[in-house]
Amino acid sequence: MTSVRAESHSGNAGFAVQVLLGVALVSAAAVRCGLIFSLGAHHTDAGAYEHAEIAGHLARGEGFALRFYGEEAQPTGHQAPAVPWILSLCYRAWGMDTPQARAGFLLFNVALGMVGVAAMYGIGSMMWNRRVGIWAAFGTALYPPLAYTATRIQAVNWSVAWMLVTLGCVMAARRRGSVGWGVCAGLAGGVALLGEPVLSGAFALVWLAVFVAAMRERPRRWAAPLAICLFTGLVVGPWVLRNAAVHGRFVPIKSAFWYSLWQGNHLEGTGTDKLLPDEQVRRKLAWSWGFGRLEGDLARARAQADSVDTLLADEDRREIRRRGSEIEKMDWFRDRALRTIAEHPGHYLRMCGRRLWQMVWFDPTNPRSYVLPYRLCYLALLLLAATGMLVSVRHRPRLWHLPVLVAVGLLAVHALVITSARFRLPLEALLVLPAAVVPARIGSGRTR
Rounded to whole angstroms, how far apart are CA atoms 432 and 445? Predict the structure, then answer.
């Protein structure tokens, strides 16, 4: 009789968890759809920028091409392929650069948000228990900056969702020694990199940690780590080969690394791709709150923001345009960036420190990351996450080092090269994990 009651209780608890996860998924979709259509994001450019131009060429059958300091579009590796390809499918289905096409892509962002919620539940459950997993799922669904990101046609929606899926699969592979989960982790990691190769630094640390752990075991379980690496390579390999054929050299997914390094370390730069806006504009946005008017103010401030590229001298612009291919133009930025770093090492170190500070605090060059609602949300998340870490010290969560390595890898890449407010969103997603421990512990008195 006791066994029957225990099984019944377990079954009821499992059903309740499934219901709550369903509510979290529906909440994520509802909040994101509400933001997209209440703000009319599909009636704006939604921050598509280069993605929109590449998608237009793809939709017209002109190939993966972009105008980069030239009059005519050329085959490009300036952006990773995932977002432009999906946007081009929306153009083909609903018209070139129409509100309907943009709405289609933004609804795809909604689906990515739901994927991230499900993945976060799995990660939280593996690290602590299902109670923490559910709170982490709701946190991911409802945390305003993550929800707002669905209104933008940018790779960050892809990178957050697939980063979490990859992390969850790696944890499952490590915990169970499962080759199947290793294959899933490799496939998910490859898909993630095709949307945002900046994740490669974080993934490299995680892959290394998994290999080191396998080496220490008796017997050594090599199959899962090898599957992760092999299938990651199989997914990204065709695009890397395409880039080699187009550019005549090895280009790992994106060709824009040297351009980004130049932007992030210009002697008059800010560590981001934008210059500081006017002090009056910053002060106004810093304390803006009104929901309806705020989005318009942000759009105007963003449109008025000056790029680091405006600091290029006319002679430099002519030299860049004289170079034939995109990769030759990138070589110009490589030479200039490396010369700046070699001649001004102190400046580079200061910029690295500045970028690291902007990654953990606030980026004054980006209006959307400087408004009061965003700052309050981030500070609340930091407080909860710090509290969750403290209460988890005595009983460390399982596999805690893997999300930490992801965070360290992301921070290192952006501190060394370039940063931007949107690049911190994957870190904010990871902070939801320890933050979820607080309400879970209050509700149950334990987290394991």
Answer: 19
String of DSSP letters for 310-368: GGS-HHHHHHHHHS-SHHHHHHHHHHHHHHHHHH-HHHHHHHHHHHHHHHHS--TT-GG
What tokens appear for 236 in the block?
């990204």
The domain locations on the chain are 2-444
pLDDT tens-place string over residues 362-390: 888 887 787 888 999 999 999 999 999 99
User: How far does CA 28 lie from the centroid of its chain?
Assistant: 17
How many residues can be counted in the chain? 448
Query: What are the residues whose beta carbons fall under 8 Å from the beta carbon of 167, sequence distance 6 or more?
Result: 119, 123, 206, 402, 403, 406
What parts of the chain have a pLDDT lower than 70?
A: 1-12, 280-293, 301-303, 445-448
* CA–CA separation, 142 and 117 (whole Å): 10
Contacts of 445 (CB under 8 A, 6+ apart): none
Peptide bond into 81 cis (omega under 30): no
d(CA 133, CA 164): 13
Q: Among all chains, which residue has been given the structure tokens 């499962």?
A: 178
3-class DSSP state for residue 386?
helix
Q: How many CA atoms lie within 13 A of 334 on its CB side?
A: 10
Single out the residue of 109, 117, 121, 111 nearest to residue 148, CA to CA.
109
pTM: 0.94
Rounded to whole angstroms, what are the CA distances from 434 to 97, 117, 339?
40, 15, 42
Q: Tell me what pLDDT residue 317 has.
A: 95
Neighbours of 425 (CB within 10 A): 22
Q: Residue 74 in 3-state DSSP?
A: strand
The token pair at 376 is 């309050």
**CA-to-CA separations, 443 to 9, 132, 158, 438, in angstroms, rounded:** 18, 10, 33, 9
Q: 408: which residues sit within 8 A by CB, 6+ positions away?
A: 202, 205
Contact 217, 429 (CB under 8 A): no
The residue written with tokens 């946005």 in the block is 285
d(CA 310, CA 313): 8
Distance of CA 336 to the CA centre of its chain: 28
Pairing status of strand 65-66 against strand 74-75: antiparallel
